[in-house]
Amino acid sequence: MRRAVARPGRVVQVLGSSAGGVARHVAQLAELLAGAGAEVVVAGPTSVLDLVRPGPTVRFAAVEIADRPRRSDVTAVRALRRLAAGAEVVHAHGLRAGALAVVAARSCGRRRPRVVVTLHNLPVGPRTVRAVAAVLELVVARGADTVLGVSGDLVERVARRGARRTERALVPAPVRAAGDATAARATIAPRPGVAIVLTVARLAPQKGLDVLLDAAGLLEESALWCVAGDGPLADGMRRRIGAERLPVRLLGRRDDVPALLAVADVVVQTSVWEGQPLGMQEALRSGSAIVTTDAGGTREVTGDAAVLVPVGDAAGLARAVDRLLADADLRAERRASSLLRAAALPGPAQVLAQVLRCYGWVPDDAAGVHGAGSEPSA
């Protein structure tokens, strides 16, 4: 059992380039830790500055951490070592940032800080990319004091790599204002009575959006499928939608997601892999009827509230959506289940308690000690 410290000390939160989810989580952690009395420094590329929102109690240090190996990694490690030298804890987010943070902290000598790494994604891509990721996983697993994973499969994976202490990270979706649902509906489906199937996702390969388009084509004109988000696949999706005359509308990036969720008849996720999908958490919170692929940690978030279909099963997805659209009572049951599940998900207080314990700033107890492969309940 570690002794609780009188007051939280200095912690450096490290992240690389982020499409948004990781940076928002770091911003939440920084705010919570600063509120608990810690001195917080967020270190990362200048591209995430607007997302992490530094302020009077959170300082930002520019450290350019690329999304793949670069010569600039040496410069990044030196910068992180300077920051780590005066810190009690270095908490890195993501595999690349985690490996660089481990190397930096280990070079600090006897007074090195405790290192915590949160893994947010499953390594995917060509064989060369996965080979590099495997090396970085070993560095993180064997060099960090604690490794957190956003899903059970990531926790098991890093435990097999030799991590001494692991847990499932708690990553709640930030609460956003509800917005004007009537105005949101008017922007996507002006005709009354049109059923809306909504997906909120970055338009990237991980999100399995080819399956969404396949499913929409199978249901023809029974609903309008709306996709809120932007990303590299936008142009290709737009061409396919036009060529096949699919009942799909790309909404682009939207700032009124809670309002869109409020007017959707069914919310769909088609991801190939997810950790703790923030979009699913928001859909549960809004009381949505959900159909989602059983990918990664999705089931850990939705529990029995969502209809789960196998990854890549467009026909199964279409059948599940069609059944919900045809049965108002079933949709109502699913909406109620979503609200119940949302109420059981961890919130900011649980996030703060977890990191304070992992940092050694509050004592471990019999209920809070987690060995390799274990995880707290959602």
Order of helices and strands: EHEHEHEHEHEHEHEHEHEHEHEHEHHH
Question: How big is the Rg?
Answer: 21 Å
Q: What structural class do helix, strand and pairing data support?
A: alpha/beta
**Overall mean pLDDT:** 91
Helix content: 40-55%
* Poorly predicted segments: 366-377
> What's the count of strands?
13
Instruction: Kindly report the spatial arrangement of strands forming the biggest sheet.
Output: 3-2-1-4-5-6-7
What oligomeric state do these chains adopt? single chain
Strand content: 15-25%
Distance between the termini: 24 Å
Mass-distribution shape: elongated
Largest sheet: 7 strands, parallel
Number of helices: 15
Write the layout of secondary structure elements.
Elements: E1 10-15, H1 21-35, E2 39-44, H2 49-52, E3 58-62, H3 72-85, E4 89-93, H4 95-106, E5 114-119, H5 127-143, E6 146-149, H6 152-160, E7 166-168, H7 181-188, E8 196-200, H8 209-219, E9 224-228, H9 234-244, E10 248-252, H10 257-263, E11 266-269, H11 278-285, E12 290-293, H12 298-302, E13 307-309, H13 314-326, H14 328-344, H15 348-358
Parallel strand pairs: 1-2, 1-4, 2-3, 4-5, 5-6, 6-7, 8-9, 8-11, 9-10, 11-12, 12-13
Helix pairs in contact: 1-15, 3-4, 4-5, 7-10, 8-9, 8-13, 11-14
